[in-house]
């Protein structure tokens, strides 16, 4: 009794999800694909040897009787339409971030889903499924370091070739916004963005690094160093200072070498390698939950909160001020 | 086109393999089970909700037309019979260690398999599938530390309640014997066993720790500290000294804490937790290979070599001498 | 040809300096002591078996022909007077921080010293002599991580029994202010102080932790987590993010243990243990320099800059704003 | 009341001791020097600006009324004569290892010292003064890992240009022999030497590495990997497996870098850098003890035990057997 999944968007990220569901995970089969480039969709069918129908229209795919659930991995600006269509069709939908490219779009999805009366939407914030973040959350939940007071995080990548404008905030830090809120089970109340000395090793139009600071309802101070042209590797750090101790996010395993007058271990360079296990767990959980008629992952509401937070950070970046993050109470539907 | 698997032995280890194949891996289904205790077999069917026939006889299960491949996870002394039956039936068989309880039994399997003309047997040496060991092998293969000269290994467990006699060698160090030979792509030529001061924290009949020393054909000196009542945790270490550097087996990830005047990370206590990912990969590879008609894992020959090595270590333990490990040339069939 | 040193202030810190100069360092002898409590001064003479005259007046000690150089380790508010007296007497003076309790007092010292035409004053910022900070500075100077962009520092102590008001800034963070400026060879231009959720494990009048943020002329963003009731230990951290890499301040050596399901190393609890070697080197350098008629340590100007920085931080703490740090150009005398 | 020290041997090691006593330590002055090369002795006087008489004869220096205590840092084969002369003159003598080049010579010194009725001889085994070894000993003494059962040590150097024959044992491992015996407060009963595959990166006449194995009276098994052409650095390791845990010798502090896809810290290359603090403490203690008429460091007996142990190891290297280490009971004089 396999879950019949349709995938909209068969570019880079869509293909890796097709591959994992087909070759490594259990309980689901890709039965339908769609892409703005029909040939790309056909190529995915062929490359992974799947028995999937190629749809010319994403909305048709969603409505097809042969599709039980949908993965949206297309271009960001198209997400809102497809997610709303899936809700309209009453079908579970996994949407890669962003849920929508505006906070308003996210809110529309939230309202549609609440009107539909059932949680159908999961957003692709895979870090919640990363073992290292889970260990860190366990430490906090089990009170091993006391109440959290400050967080010191870093999101570093070797380079960000296509980045422009505020993508460091809207495209990569959104993962931080989601996972830290989940980690603390707390909400953000304000944001400040500091623009340190710029690295000379990137497009001179671009500000890099940013230091993004958030404050939570309970007063926790969060600092995120976003540095997407850090050269040396892809490196995700999170340190929590609590009342009685400090906890640090574990790093990927690496053989340790003593060679050439140094003791050294490897830092990964490719971000996909860092979260490959998290992606696997995320999709296996989504498949299992969906087969049981449940949705326990990051919700449309979480996607909306992240969008509002990103908006406040962008505003703070240009104002230089501490900007409020104003959100309605979490609806009971999502609590 | 799922691989139809029969499982012989539905005790502890059999159950975890049924669970992983059913819930986490892809490409196979458990269609038949057998155990000396029929009720235990029935319980497995029920607990994991699988659609599997319960066989009263392991050999009947092997011969059944509804079974494509067999997993042998029964009591050690029964392995030889079941593996030979699988070979006779021309069916792929995954056999938990030991392949047979005597080197002679292993050799009989090797001969039967060669006579059958096709590699059908894989032995459950899961460490080869552990990412940390794979990283270590990559370091050696890529010549990052030069030619290996010495190995310093440790196999430590918190306690070994059921251990008696030479089980430290024959039951747990066999994993070291297999994985180190694979790591070095070399063969053993002699063994010495040193009996250090005994820990007071175990059955006083038992020698613990042992220091087991092996020499390879190319002259690499291997030392393995086997300490199965080490109290503090389950801890597998492997350090390779090469001509230009040293490499250390990576350890499982753990959040790092600063608390109570210490900086600390967790050491696991349960051995299954240490190798859970390796088991998953081992079985997924076995399923994939078997569906393709291949066998690329630890072979019957590897199981035989390990048995001969264990015999030499037991002999050396009582003689106090350096004992030769005599093996015929690896048959072309297994090279 | 030993340096004849007079010590003003024979309380806790004065005593450890007498002890180190007498028992561990070379080239100097304590020949005179003074304290507001004459009996305390007499006790120091007796306890360390030194051949030193006890002076009733600090100023008399400074002026005595038997004294070549002076160490001021008395109560903070007395420092300014004694340092000015030493300058007036033309004698080298080592002054524990603070140089003076107000920026104005520091400025008066700077002006007196410049008028005297010779650098006579060294301020007790011992971190510059710490090997770990020196290694970190070497990394920056040798361009091993590219130009520094952000600094992430922590100053944590298990508890701060006597702390009140803004002492976290004025009493302990002053060491950060001095050493980071030295590390970067840069000057501060603004300060911001964030007040995170307070720990419940200290006097409820006290804000703890503080997050102190400084910006340098070249745009480096510095964040200092000052947490003086951190319970778990005395822990000084400094991480520099540069254009091509990250560098972390080394921590004191500690035996690593694997025990009780953890891998652990010790964190020191007593701050004096952390910087004992730095103190030794600081005083040995001061003795050697003084014997050569030189002064190469932290200067009166450095003491003044730190005082102005601390004032700006205190102001920022209460305003909640980013406050400017306004300093005149460094006089050529001190460059 | 400075200790007036005469130094015999002003080559490399003699010079660094003159330098440290003159510039860094307290309580002693170098008042006399001697070397087989008079010009080398004169050069030391000049280079370090010391007020020392140059003696043509080492024995004359020892007997001089202006000399309170002697440091022997000359060529190894001359040590025995000078130490015996110092004992005859009733003067404290610090002798760099070896105490004598034969076990018989060491024994003669032991007997002469016992006849003199007072401990006058300290041998230059500086590792006992290394903080990392002291931490490790504290762990054992405080029973933090239970009774020691096995030790796993490594002594690695980048290269050993002048090494020939068995110098790896007789010249460098002697430090291991002394410090491990001190660490365990135990005595050796047998030795075995394993000759692993040789590195290709050294003189092909030389065996390198050696694995030297010792057994103590209480049954502790010690393994020392001596690898003097290890290329990558100077690296001293010591791991103790106890009944309840493992302890590892701390390594020198080093800034940690994240750069070029690696996390790395430095390994030192120059052995003198590794033990510079230990040398300082060793000599300061010797000065302090000598001024008090005491001798608390490694004794002539310790030097003798090391010589007997080295002899057994050399014998074992060529016999391939486990060789007994036979020593008389420790005389009460040295207990």
UniProtKB/TrEMBL annotation, chains A, B, C, D:
Reaction(s) catalysed (UniProt annotation): myo-inositol + NAD(+) = scyllo-inosose + NADH + H(+)
GO biological process, one term: inositol catabolic process
All residue ranges annotated as the Gfo/Idh/MocA-like oxidoreductase N-terminal domain in the record: 3-125
Lineage summary: Bacteria, Pseudomonadati, Pseudomonadota, Gammaproteobacteria, Oceanospirillales
Protein name: Inositol 2-dehydrogenase
Functional description taken from the UniProt entry: Involved in the oxidation of myo-inositol (MI) to 2-keto-myo-inositol (2KMI or 2-inosose).
Keyword Oxidoreductase: yes
EC numbers, comma separated: 1.1.1.18
GO molecular function: inositol 2-dehydrogenase (NAD+) activity; nucleotide binding
Similarity comment text for this entry: Belongs to the Gfo/Idh/MocA family.
Subunit structure: Homotetramer.
Top-level lineage group: Bacteria
Pfam families listed in its UniProt record: GFO_IDH_MocA, GFO_IDH_MocA_C
Keyword set, alphabetical order: NAD, Oxidoreductase
Annotated Gfo/Idh/MocA-like oxidoreductase C-terminal domain residues: 137-317
PANTHER family associated with the record: INOSITOL 2-DEHYDROGENASE, PTHR43593
């Amino acid at each position: 009794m396999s879950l019949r999944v349709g995938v909209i968007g068969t570019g880079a990220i869509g293909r890796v999800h097709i591959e994992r569901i087909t070759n490594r995970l259990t309980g689901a089969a890709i039965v339908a694909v769609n892409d703005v480039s029909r040939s790309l969709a056909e190529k995915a069918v062929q490359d992974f040897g799947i028995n999937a129908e190629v749809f010319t229209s994403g909305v048709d795919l969603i409505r097809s009787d042969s599709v039980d659930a949908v993965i949206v991995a297309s271009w960001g600006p198209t997400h809102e339409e497809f997610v709303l269509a899936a809700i309209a069709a009453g079908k579970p939908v996994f949407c890669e971030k962003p849920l929508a490219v505006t906070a308003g779009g996210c809110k529309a999805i939230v309202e549609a889903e609440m009107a539909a009366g059932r949680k159908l939407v999961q957003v692709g914030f895979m870090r919640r499924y990363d073992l290292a973040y889970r260990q860190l959350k366990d430490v906090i939940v089990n009170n091993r370091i006391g109440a959290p007071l400050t967080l010191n995080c870093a999101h570093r990548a070797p380079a960000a070739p296509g980045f422009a404008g505020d993508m460091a905030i809207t495209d990569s830090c959104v993962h931080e916004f989601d996972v830290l809120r989940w980690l603390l089970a707390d909400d953000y109340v304000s944001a400040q963005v500091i623009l340190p000395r710029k690295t000379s090793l990137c497009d001179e139009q671009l500000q890099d690094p940013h230091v993004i600071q958030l404050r939570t309802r309970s007063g926790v101070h969060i600092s995120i160093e976003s540095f997407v042209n850090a050269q040396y590797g892809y490196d995700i750090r999170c340190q929590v200072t609590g009342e009685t101790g400090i906890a640090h996010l574990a790093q990927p395993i690496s053989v340790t070498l003593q060679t050439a007058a140094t003791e050294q271990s490897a830092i990964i360079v490719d971000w996909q390698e860092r979260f490959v296990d998290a992606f696997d767990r995320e999709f296996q959980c989504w498949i299992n939950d969906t087969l049981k008629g449940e949705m326990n992952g990051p919700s449309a509401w979480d996607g909306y909160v992240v969008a509002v937070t990103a908006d406040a950070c962008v505003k703070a970046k240009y104002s230089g001020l501490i900007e409020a993050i104003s959100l309605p109470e979490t609806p009971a539907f999502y609590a």
